[in-house]
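Changelog entry

Holo records now carry the ligand SMILES as an explicit input line rather than a separate metadata file. Below, a converted record for S-adenosylmethionine, shown in the new format.
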Amino acid sequence: MPIKFDLVKYKNSVFVETGTYRGASVLSAIEAGFDRIYSIEIDDQLYEEARQRFADYITSGKVILLHGDSAQKLPEIIEREKELCTFWLDAHSQKFNFDNETLGAENCPIFFELDTIAKSGRNDHTILIDDVRLIKNKNAWRGHNVTLEGVIEKLRAINPDYTLQYEPGHIEDDVLVATASPN
Ligand SMILES: C[S@@+](CC[C@H](N)C(=O)[O-])C[C@H]1O[C@@H](n2cnc3c(N)ncnc32)[C@H](O)[C@@H]1O
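Structure line, unchanged by the conversion:
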């Protein structure tokens, strides 16, 4: 889901997105003025389309697109990038009702992503998590044991003092926002 709120409120040096899709949020991050923008996409065709769409920004070094599973690629970014980041965690299968038999953990990587951020050595990154409605929906991400309580627990493990609030997305309060200092 493209970003529907004012991203400038959550601006740091670096924007890191999981799940590029058509690149709408890469564009929002460019417009918001982030210095560097990383985005990870698992799908071959979507990755290739984004590479063509943002070719000039990739050449200038502003946009860095990574192809693969965020569970594998996010650690590479964390290793390389020591600046304060705004994470937009939005990687998941496009299927709404997951079938636990056929979809692996790579299609619902939010817990892996939060565990990776926890190892960054910083506890002041801004973390935006999209699709709270799916996290809350027992028929959507149930197969992966992803719950809102579990997500909040992982955020608190990164920083017990995170301020948590919500922004609109597909519906009201669909984006969970964790900030180290209130915006
Ligand atoms: C809801 S869309 C992302 C929308 C996009 N972030 C935006 O703001 O416009 C989810 C994307 O995550 C991708 N995806 C799914 N699992 C992934 C994974 N494990 N790692 C990286 N990308 C993944 C899907 O192919 C899809 O393009």
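Spot-checked after migration. The chain has one domain: 7-179. Residues 7-179 form a domain with the Rossmann fold fold (CATH 3.40.50.150).
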